[in-house]
Write a structure and sequence with these properties.
Strand order of the largest sheet: 2-1-3-4-5
Helix content: 25-40%
Distance between the termini: 45 Å
Number of domains: 2
CATH architecture of the largest domain: Orthogonal Bundle
Order of helices and strands: EHEHEHEEHEEEEHEHHEEEH
CATH superfamily of the largest domain: Winged helix-like DNA-binding domain superfamily/Winged helix DNA-binding domain
Number of strands: 13
């Protein structure tokens, strides 16, 4: 498999180094052991993927990763931290704790190297992979059912808009039957568990009483923000 990876790790990372596993899969792996070397490599030969293994670094790898994320670095980042390290949360960064198995490491690397195309939606801290039906929030992946993925896709494509229950039932379940919307409510409950920090106090997906739901992501962080003002969307009105 093709792909240029910059691996930032300590000089004495022989036993725990991910390089042999990646090279066996055909990836081009360049190594950097210092912050300066990593910055130089990023500027001169930008990789397709940056892997930061903080377990053996002699400088603060978490701070380095945080700075790259804050500067809107467009290179995908895989961050490896010690098992006893509290999972850090940086936008767009996928995190692995401890010593990852070969399978887990390669799965994460291949997913991060996959071209996004039109199957990846972003809104705020969320990224929805429509092909794999996976939502990623702060580096954590949550697998969704086909209906959950479809429902979240509709919400993300209508950021800031109030969507009626009738519209959602028609789009996701292809029905005009509204006598029982319990199925919709259950699916919204599951989505909140996947995307909200506190599902009982949702920030992304809120209920609009007697109407439906509204999905809101911060405009400054939304890759596909819409210029129009929020309005109610009803399938029966829009056709």
């Amino acid at each position: 498999m093709e792909g240029h990876i910059l691996l930032v790790e300590g000089e004495r990372a022989a036993r725990t180094s991910c390089a042999p596993i990646l090279e066996e899969q055909g990836f081009q792996v360049d190594r950097a052991h210092t912050r300066r070397a990593a910055c130089t490599a990023l500027e001169t030969t930008p990789p397709d993927l940056l892997v930061i293994d903080t377990r053996t670094l002699r400088f603060n790898g978490l701070r380095f990763c945080e700075e790259l994320s804050a500067n809107e670095n467009h290179i995908p980042i895989l961050l490896i931290v010690p098992e006893d390290q509290k999972r850090p949360h940086y936008p767009g960064v996928v995190v692995l704790r401890g010593t990852p198995t070969t399978r887990k490491l390669l799965n994460r690397v291949k997913r991060l190297l996959s071209p996004p195309g039109n199957h990846l939606l972003r809104a705020g801290e969320l990224a929805l992979d429509l092909q794999r039906r996976v939502v990623i929030r702060r580096g954590e992946e949550h697998r969704l059912t086909p209906r959950q993925a479809r429902l979240l896709e509709i919400f993300m494509r209508n950021n800031g808009r109030v969507l009626t229950r009738a519209f959602l039932m028609k789009e996701v379940w292809e029905t005009d039957y509204l006598d029982d919307t319990r199925t919709l409510e259950v699916h919204v409950h599951w989505l909140r568990k996947a995307i909200e920090e506190d599902p009982k106090n949702p920030q992304y997906l809120t209920t609009v009483r007697r109407v439906g739901y509204c999905f809101n992501a911060p405009r400054s962080l939304t890759a596909r923000s819409r210029p129009d003002a929020p309005r109610e969307v009803d399938h029966r009105q829009t056709g």
